[in-house]
Amino acid sequence: MKIKNGSKLQSPNDELIESFEEYCEIKLPTDFIDFLKKYNGSIPITNVFLHEKNELLIGRFLCLFIKPIAEGFPQV
């Protein structure tokens, strides 16, 4: 998968991730935490995937943030 380098969002720190996990009552897999820290809110270049004969489109990866740091993101 190709992903645009960087994100306008700051990478989530361990405290934010732990807070999210506690709030949602889940434990994120380590590889997903590493993915969040590297690609938080990034946009995939290859964004169409085939799954069970259906084409799926991914416009942007999910992100974690405390408050917006870039234009175009809603106030929390």
From TrEMBL:
InterPro entries according to UniProt: Knr4/Smi1-like_sf (IPR037883)
UniProt cross-references to Gene3D superfamilies, sorted A to Z: SMI1/KNR4-like
Domain of life: Bacteria
Protein name stated in the entry: Knr4/Smi1-like domain-containing protein
Organism: Bacillus cereus VD048
